Amino acid sequence: MRAIAAVAFTLTFALAWSAWAFQSSPSVAARPPYAAAPQGNTKVGIAWLDKVAGQVELANSVGQDFHPAMGQTALIQGNILRTGRGGAEVQLQDQSTLRVGPGSVIAFPRLELLPSGNKVYVMQGLRGTIYVSLMPNYIIDTRGNDFQLTFGQQQVYLQPSGHIRLEIDPKEARLAMLDGKGRVEGPFGSMELTKKKTFTFDLSGKSQPVVSNKVAANPMDKWDTSAVAYHQHTITRFDRGLLTVP
User: Fold this and answer.
1) What is the pLDDT of residues 105-149, one digit of tens each?
2) pLDDT in tens, 35-64
3) Half-sphere exposure of residue 246: CA atoms within 13 angstroms, side-chain side
């Protein structure tokens, strides 16, 4: 299965977006307001770049120069990840994962461990294609963790097992709910996210998203599906003692 995922990953990048998308990143200055971090929280390595392929770069914060990213690199609060003809997989400490396709930019404005032991993950999608897959509670208990994915003026909150694909263009964003449940909040109010529906947002206005009762295919879906299946299978085997680490 791992070989299949690798093949899908490679084939996808052969169809990657034009290199111009790699040359500039949109500003993150207009990000939504985030809650101030309470005293006592720690900004530790609760997320890291698990895999990278092709053109992938990382910046420490807004206004900083990008530099080539490497696999198994810890992500810290304020990091910005940018891909050109390449892609990356991000793993969170609770074993949830993000996959970032070619020509994409994602920022990490808040990554914190609370005194309670719960984690806060706030990511901001700025451009391109981003997949998010939260671990099911029957594999990893993620209750109490706070996961948010923002884009434009919208905030997405996913429940365990939530699996989405977010495609962000200059004028609109398409959020496909591949599995699980969640909700999205924005200037229009709040809306429940239900499985196998696509929500299209006009990023220039406050109108309600357009809802479609189907999910269109994306060339990167095979990469994402294979990676999710392999990751969950590996975690399950490790939890049962069937997989050992050298």
Assistant:
1) 999 999 999 998 899 999 999 999 999 999 888 888 877 889 999
2) 444 444 555 668 999 999 999 999 987 667
3) 0
Q: CA-to-CA distance for 96 and 160, rounded, in angstroms? A: 9
Tally of structural domains, the chain: 1
What confidence score (pLDDT) does residue 106 get? Answer: 97
pLDDT at 193 over 70: yes
Provide the CATH number for the domain around residue 218. Answer: 2.60.120.1440
Q: Which of 160, 192, 43 is closest to 110 using CA atoms?
A: 43
Kindly list the distances between the CA atom of residue 172 and the CA atoms of 55, 166, 168, 175, 234, in Å, as whole numbers in the listed order: 25, 11, 6, 10, 36
DSSP 8-state code for residue 38:
P
Structural element, H or E, at residue 120: strand 119-133
What pLDDT score does 62 carry?
A: 65
Contact 176, 198 (CB under 8 A): yes
Between the two ends of the chain, the Cα-to-Cα distance in Å is 21
Domain annotation covers residue 82: yes
CA 192/CA 119 separation, integer angstroms: 23
Q: What is the 8-class DSSP label of residue 180?
A: S
Could you give the CA distance from residue 149 to residue 183 in angstroms, rounded to a whole number? 11
Tokens of 169: 């263009």
Phi then psi for residue 27, to 5 deg, are -70, 145
- Domain ranges, residue 225: 2-32+44-239
Has residue 245 been placed in a domain?
Answer: no
Q: How many other CB atoms sit within 10 Å of the CB of residue 175?
A: 24
